[in-house]
Amino acid sequence: MNDHNFSPRVGLAYSIGNDRPLVIRGGWGVFYPRIPQLYLSTIATQNGINSTNLFLDNMNFYGRQIFPTFPNPLVACEPSASVCAPTSSAVAHLSSDISAFAPNFEAPRVQQASLTLEREVANRIAVGVSLLHVHGENLIRARDVNLPPPTDVTYPVFDESGFSQVGTYDVPTFSTWQMTRSLTCPFPPCINPLARPVAQLGAINQFESVATSDYNAATVSVHRRMTRGLYFRLAYTWAKALDNGQDALVAGRPVTVQNSYSTASERGPSVTDQRNRIAFSWIAAPRPFGREHDFLGKLFDDWKLAGVMTYGSGRPLDARVSGDPNQDDNSTNDRLPGYTRNAFQGPDYATTDLRITRRLRLKRLKLSAERLSLMRAPRDNQRVTITDDGFQNMAGQFTKLSKTL
Question: pLDDT digit string (tens) for 348-401?
């Protein structure tokens, strides 16, 4: 990692004209974000020494020999024991996952450029146009480097009855097929267990600084500064975000690419990509009665209304496939063949929120009432899991129910 990252930045502001001038603002800069502490802690804990994993498949001949039978445990340790050693028969089945930075790892580098044109077109009403470009490089992406070269395999696909074949499923797989009968494959054909190059270890998740991202956005806005008890802002944003699989660690678990030997299919819309978004916010503090109506003013002049209405197009959706068909010992990175990452798009959504506030003249006490999602009754915004890792995210990501084949 380079300790002398150069971060030049420049900004400008210029106005043209005297009466309601056109204001131009712009900037460009290079930024080096910090490496999240989550990566450092993961590397410290998943070092191949602190912890080991034991996975036994009762359908496997050798695993079935030491598979525990109820009520006998596989390992019996005292409740107060600080170390619980595995039995000699289970040692051969132990494995450790390792996480590490790549030898040539570099700090992520982000370039950001913006340009804004704004002008007041009427009393306290301004119109603005903003352009934003963000390019990221050396972004972190995880790759399992303890995998053998894959081979192309064709799986048959049947209908719901299980008898009629409707197509084939072509996927590069990291395991081999066995066509002859043996102790581990009593009924061929069978998929052999994954044979890793370093058999004593499980996944070796290497964090590499190879991912890139591009974000381009244009925003047109109209806003009115607060005067005579009224403020509003209306903004429309068109944006496009592309990357090839950044954010390699989610909730302490590596998000590895689908094929460690071919990462071209990782380029696609970012999980934060949203092409269209409209937002309208307003605040109204009417004062219908002045000082000459003191009693009525105390009743009606201290109310404040506020609202926010948003509309957004659909977020990207990944066509996930369950069952680990590529047999890389990772069931969360398999996609429908022929499609890149986040190739689909979910439906749009809209929300409306309203707030009413009343200021009371009792030791500066305020009384407020809020109603969120007023459009819930006429509109159904459905939320499901569409994050890059498969974890559920409730931050405004919506899609229809999935179809299972």
Answer: 888 888 888 877 666 566 666 565 555 444 566 665 454 444 444 433 333 444
Q: In this structure, what token pair is assigned to residue 256? A: 């590895």
Please report which residue ranges of 236-370 form alpha helices under DSSP H.
294-300
Task: Report d(CA 318, CA 334) in Å as an integer.
Answer: 10
| Per-residue CA distances from 289 to 231, 299, 302 (Å) | 19, 9, 10
Q: Is 93:55 a contact under the CB 8 Å cutoff?
A: yes
CA distance linking residue 252 with residue 45, whole number of Å: 10
pLDDT in tens, 39-51: 888 888 888 887 7
Q: What share of the chain is helix, strand, coil (3-state, %, to 5)?
A: 10, 40, 50
Under 8 Å CB-to-CB from 57, ≥6 apart: which residues? 63, 64, 193
Pairing of strands 9-16, 190-191: unpaired
Peptide bond into 189 cis (omega under 30): yes
The pair of structure tokens assigned to 161 is 């009855």
Q: How far, in Å, CA of 301 to CA of 228, rounded?
A: 12
- For 192-251, write each residue's pLDDT tens digit: 888 899 988 888 999 999 999 999 999 999 999 888 788 999 999 999 999 987 666 665
**Where does residue 367 rank: exposed (0-12), middle (13-18), buried (19+ CB within 10 A)?**
exposed
| Spatial separation of the C-alpha atoms in residues 19 and 241, rounded to whole Å | 38
The type of residue at 259 is: N
Which tokens in the block code for residue 197?
Answer: 């190059």
DSSP 337-399: TT--TT-EE---EEEEEEEEEEE-SSSS-EEEEEE--GGGTT----B---SSSS----SS-B-
Kindly report the length of the chain. Answer: 405
- In 214-342, which residue ranges form alpha helices assigned H by DSSP? 294-300
Is-contact 209 124, C-beta < 8 A? no
| pLDDT score at 390 | 41
DSSP 295-338: HHHHHHTTEEEEEEEEEEPPPEE--B-SS-TT-SS-TTS-B-TT
Of 203, 204, 208, the C-alpha closest to 104 is 208
Which pair of structure tokens corresponds to residue 221?
């806005």
CA atoms of 319 and 337, how far apart (whole Å): 9
Among the listed residues 54, 62, 60, 58, the one whose alpha carbon sits nearest the alpha carbon of residue 87: 54
Please report the sign of the dihedral spanned by the C-alpha atoms of residue 186, residue 188, residue 192, residue 193. Answer: negative
